[in-house]
């Protein structure tokens, strides 16, 4: 039952409203009436007999304000039983559907200035990656993003967060070689798996959310304790999908060489895709393709917050009964004082007879 912004959770209690009237009509109060003889010499008679009579019974008749308090109190009690609630303004709640961990290679080779920015100027690979990631984040509404940086070892720069602006701020703080000169790709994948597992144990987190890793690297693994392919197999068993973007020229030799066979297997084993990005255009295209492979996955639900009003009606009942008790006490004191004066006056009149 709802009236605009007011709702009764259990309106069936309203059937109790006419109950006092039914009781009044069907079960009338017991009444008795006795006549008494009034004599002007009552006080003298009592004194001569040596009796000490008590105060006589009075007729129980409620006043208008007592009836009003009873009616309002009963109404408040019944309304309180219906559990009234005030409905707030409609709110939109978005349920997050995917966790995306972005892994960025910070090895020394990321300082190579073989990419161009939007103005056509040469920039290093890391700056090119940052530029593309800024555009990538704009299309990730509803996703939680994390950031892992790796070089000689891997570490978490940003745990999973829905605050994309904070994520970008921490990405901008990264620098080439801040994690070392080497490439610990396998350890980075392993750290991602551990991050997903730790996050699943947090209260109110849904372990059924899709888990995606996006790896950006420009060289072979040279420093990991865990081989990238072994880490990928564990990721596949945990339901983690990995997309790998290889930056630079795949024909490069030495430590900076790209082993595309390993990169392809990492992606294939986990149900992801691998991409080659020789320039900024190809890098942008790789992230665009990932956006298509991992479309937005979240639901928005509209709800109205509810504020219980039950305790207010209970407080009104308590206050009304305290008021009635106070008024009755005052009335009783005044009646007693008035009766005392009347008896004193009668005694004085009896003394003159």
From TrEMBL:
Residues 99-290 form the VWFA domain. Keywords: Membrane, Transmembrane, Transmembrane helix. The keyword Transmembrane applies. Gene3D superfamilies: von Willebrand factor, type A domain. The chain crosses the membrane at residues 12-30, 312-330. Pfam families: VWA. The keyword Metal-binding does not apply. PROSITE patterns: VWFA (PS50234). InterPro entries: UPF0353/GerABKA_families (IPR050768), VWF_A (IPR002035), vWFA_dom_sf (IPR036465). PANTHER family: SPORE GERMINATION PROTEIN, VWFA DOMAIN-CONTAINING PROTEIN. This is VWA domain-containing protein.
